Amino acid sequence: GPPGSWHHHLVQRSLVLFSVGVVLALVLNLLQVQRNVTLFPEEVIATIFSSAWWVPPCCGTAAAVVGLLYPCIDSRLGEPHKFKREWASVMRCVAVFVGINHASAKLDFANNVQLSLTLAALSLGLWWTFDRSRSGLGLGITIAFLATLITQLLVYNGVYQYTSPDFLYIRSWLPCIFFSGGVTVGNIGRQLAMGVPEKPHSD
Amino acid sequence: MTLTERLREKISQAFYNHGLLCASYPIPIILFTGLCIVACCCPLLKLPLPGTGPVEFTTPVKDYSPPPVALDHKPGEPSERPEWYVGAPVAYIQQIFVKSSVSPWHKNLLAVDVFRSPLSRAFQLVEEIRNHVLRDSSGTRGLEEVCLQVTDLLPGLRKLRNLLPEHGCLLLSPGNFWQNDRERFHADPDIIGTIHQHEPKTLQTSATLKDLLFGVPGKYSGVGLYTRKRMVSYTITLVFRRYHANLRARLMLLHPSPNCSLRAESLVHVHFKEEIGIAELIPLVTTYIILFAYIYFSTRKIDMVKSKWGLALAAVVTVLSSLLMSVGLCTLFGLTPTLNGGEIFPYLVVVIGLENVLVLTKSVVSTPVDLEVKLRIAQGLSSESWSIMKNMATELGIILIGYFTLVPAIQEFCLFAVVGLVSDFFLQMLFFTTVLSIDIRRMELADLNKRLPSEACLPPAKPVGRPARFERQLAVRPSTPHTITLQPSSFRNLRLPKRLRVIYFLARTRLAQRLIMAGTVVWIGILVYTDPAGLRTYLAAQVTEQSPLGDGALTPMPVPSGVLPASHPDPAFSIFPPDAPKLPENQTLPGEPPEPGGPAEGAPDSPVPEVTWGPEDEELWRTLSFRHWPTLFSYYNITLAKSGVGSVFEAQESWERLSDSGKGGLEEPGDSPPLRHRPRGPQPPALFGDQPDLTCLIDTNFSAQPRLSEPTQPEPRHRAGCSRAREGPGYDFSRLVQRVYQEDGLAPSHSPALRPASPGPGSPPTPEDEGGYPEKGSPSLAWAPSADGSIWSLELQGSLIVVGRSSGRLEVWDAIEGTLRCSSEEVSSGITALVFLDKRIVAARLNGSAWRSSSPASPVYSSSDAVACRLTHTVPCAHQKPITALKAAAGRLVTGSQDHTLRVFRLEDSCCLFTLQGHSGAITAVYIDQTMVLASGGQDGAICLWDVLTGSRVSHMFAHRGDVTSLTCTTSCVISSGLDDLISIWDRSTGIKLYSIQQDLGCGASLGVISDNLLVTGGQGCVSFWDLNYGDLLQTVYLGKNSEAQPTRQILVLDNAAIVCNFGSELSLVYVPSVLEKLD
């Protein structure tokens, strides 16, 4: 297609991804706040969307970046993702991701190791069920590492905190959540990119 | 041919045959499947329906006792009790309903006057209730001890801090708007404004503050500017922790209501289920949105069939009924779901998935269309059989892995998912395939009808790999360009302007009408769902308006002075609360006890035609919003519902409505010794201040007789009956002591003479009984049931009993002979606490007539000779508020007061050494021993340890929810008990909690320390012995038959390891030789 349309689609996709990230951040944070896993200052809790104002935009931006990065890497590597490329599968993936969050927030585990191992197995299962690409795995692990590092820094600088941290300053299941989140958003991003004609490399 | 290939062929063949079968006999198979679904879902009928409305269960008031904690009825046996009726409820709620009106009504009265004086009655009633003393078989207790103690309001409710009670009884009345202060009420120029200041401006479905404090729905209260009926109704809401019936009897006595025929004979237990808050709702809604998106995107792929929607519906039905079957089957095999069904449902659907259904459809429709229908079905099935089986096996494998996470919730989820997958497979094979075959046949017929005129033979359509929506028309008949049939869906292909298309769309679908209809239905649904009580309120209000209320002429009554606000000195109108038609003369005569037949006389002569009690008042609480009580309790962070997901709910709430009705109870008016923990209100009115007490033992101090030890008979228990009625034999203290003496083989000869006259160092009284035991000694035969006031405090040493009376009289009795040795009556202020130590008696008094302005003094008497007591010292103003705890040891005297402080005095010269501050509530328990260790506990639930030598605080522990009721120390630990029925053991040096023991209900304070490592606690009909160092239960001794299990409320340890327990209405003396052996 013409370059204008390509940019138009890019903006559209990033907007969609951004809003998906914002909504997921709000909803999942609500799950965590209910269980008193994260602690934000008191006044904020009183509001319905009980996270600090900067959390949803950050998550949205991250979702947009990741969601654009996945198809981009796919096309760079020259191995377009073909496995279960349909919206139903994407929805299933999102539902499983929400389910993983739900489990991390609401289930009573015997100890943190069990919780983290279970969630790690679930996230790997998520990747295997909906992605099964090497690039997806690598990107997911990278995202999980970076995001964990960032949260460590944030908590270390006292921006917010976790109740009963067991992995330095945060919870040990956080990388699993980031990994599965990365895979999910990447899945959405790939599906969004599917509907658009690929940008020809020649020009 | 490998094994896999053979397996594959077998499966394929089986599916082929199955497809043939399904397509040949569609109707019988669908019927069979339907029957299967119904059969599997049958067990679901036993599960409770989802919903958060409260559930009720009614039991008679008579002989009520809380249900046992454990379910003891057999599973098969049908039980009348609902399943949630287990264990003690969160609270009992008693509402005293007051209806009053102003009569006669003058034209010059303002609208505000309708409720000014009726409301002022609330203050009086609240005081009466606060000063009420509850009696039962085990003793006399103040309201504070039986009501539900609340702690802080939630942090978000700071603006309600002055309006709702904190750190005390949960007692609500309209007076709370003015902090229960009558002056504040009278000074308030804008009563309505005060009442409505916290009303929400917007529509609100839950209970507002006004509803909470008035206890009746807003419409009923009659407080508002535009009320026509001039009738004010409100309730005083009391929340108890345990059930007590006699407050009601007493109120009936005080306020006989002759024209009322209401009966309140049943206790309604209300069970609240967990409510879903908005915070929980949002994730739930999100998961459902994702679920619907998934279903939408999945079913959108169904194509090239006759009825897309029909097949999509069939697919959804397949998944849903497989889930229902899964739950049903699990229930059938005894697995009750504990997970919240609504929460995990979307995940289950997603896990089971619609994939197989879609694959099946795609495979079938891609078979050659010219084949026979059943062959098409069979071919389609068999070609996809392998992948279906492979998928199924994979999913089962994944779920089985999940099963081995050993997390109960995940295991349960996996179990449901496995059963769901299997039943889903079953339904796909039978139900969906059959539906598909029917659909294909219909399509074929339709096609044939269309095709017959033009074309006889069609080339088979190519199987379409991935059908998409826009290919639909082309894909079916790509090679038949000459058969152009105008499909209905080709509407959209017409080139119409956009506006027109929108309008066509709207017209075609009647979208607007449908939206409005759906909106109306949803709105009505929400209305009915959220506030069924609201509708009932409306209906009830309609009925009330027709009932003859508020019209007849009123009989004028004299107005008690002080009720009317000063701004309206119109003497001609009176208030007329039928609940409270007390005779003023009866009320204002102090010191004159009403005759036993008093209640009958107390009824006013004049009939009260105006305020009637009709059936509409019978169950007024039902008209409250069903969120009323959950809202109230949520302010204190008490949840009424603890729900295991699904069906098991634990919380329940019971409450009794009290409307003062007909014949007043004939129970004798009770005396009220000051509540040691909370003399908050004004002093009890003289009306019931001077009654001969209904005698009942609440605690007994068997003095540690030095010679009492070594009973020769190893008899394990010994009981002495204690009757509560005055005319009964009474509790004869001296007789008991004498009997013990005889058992000991000791002549009682040495006691009467020797003990009182033993001032010398010969036999110094042992100091271990320095505890002030709040005893209500019953007047034995020899004791005059004096008119000197009730006994507020009692202390025993040797054979001397020191009695402090409410009249301020201090008496010293000889316990064995039952004679009064001496008495002292210098001050006329009641003695709240006593200490008898080293020939000295210390009495804490409350001076002055009003509690608030009282300056309690603690005079020190010296009874160097038992026959004479003389006043040696008086500390005029020891505390700002009444003294609640008094202990002495090691030459020090410690007083704890309601003013949140402790003071340490030197015993010789009554010099105040320290004032100890650190509690945030009234002091309830103090402990001091020879080693100068001082511990104190307060209403704030905290325990402080102090250094008596320096007056500094050593440690501060938050110990209990509610008051600390008793405190004692050993050399290594501190033992505390609280109103929360917990006994906590703390390390004395570090202040760290070692462990805690959960006591039976009502046995919280029954504990005793036998030695440094042996603790005895009381339970339901038993006493238990614990190893203090490790917290191990050593032994439990049952005190009676199991059938008569009464709580052991008090325990006193004698120094020979015998234990005296207050056990119901009896005393048990337990002597356990084995414990002694363990000690050695």
Number of strands of chain A: 2
Gyration radius over CA of chain B: 39 Å
Helix content of chain B: 25-40%
Sum up the overall morphology of chain A in one term: globular
Give the low-confidence spans of chain B: 71-78, 454-494, 531-609, 641-786, 848-858
Task: Give the H and E element order of chain A.
Answer: HEHHHHHEH
Whole-number radius of gyration of chain A? 17 Å
Q: Estimate what percentage of residues of chain B fall within beta strands.
A: 15-25%
Q: What's the number of structural domains of chain A?
A: 1
Q: What spatial form of chain B do the alpha-carbon principal axes imply?
A: elongated
Secondary-structure-based class of chain B equals alpha+beta
End-to-end Cα distance of chain B, whole Å, is 84 Å
Helical/strand content category of chain A: mainly alpha
**Mean of residue pLDDT values of chain A:** 81
Low-confidence stretches of chain A: 42-48, 197-203
Largest sheet of chain B: 7 strands, mixed
Commentary on this structure:
Chain A: Keywords: Cholesterol metabolism, Endoplasmic reticulum, Lipid metabolism, Lipid-binding, Membrane, Steroid metabolism, Sterol metabolism, Transmembrane, Transmembrane helix. Chain A: Pfam families: INSIG. Chain A: GO terms for molecular function: lipid binding. The complex is a heterodimer of chains A (about 200) and B (about 1100). The C terminus of chain A is likely disordered. Chain A contains seven helices and two strands, in the order H-E-H-H-H-H-H-E-H. By secondary structure, chain A is mainly α. A two-stranded antiparallel ribbon of chain A has the order 1-2. Chain A has one domain. Chain B is α+β, with helices and mostly antiparallel strands. Helices cover about 30% and strands about 20% of the residues of chain B. Chain B has 25 helices and 39 strands. In chain B, strands 1, 2, 7, 8, 9, 10 and 11 form a seven-stranded mixed β-sheet that branches. In chain B, strand 25 and strand 26 form a beta hairpin. In chain B, helix 11 runs antiparallel to helix 15, helix 12 crosses helix 15 and helix 13 runs parallel beside helix 15. Chain B is elongated, with a radius of gyration of 39 Å. The relative contact order of chain B is 0.09. About 25% of the residues of chain B have low confidence. The interface between A and B is medium-sized, with 36 and 32 residues.
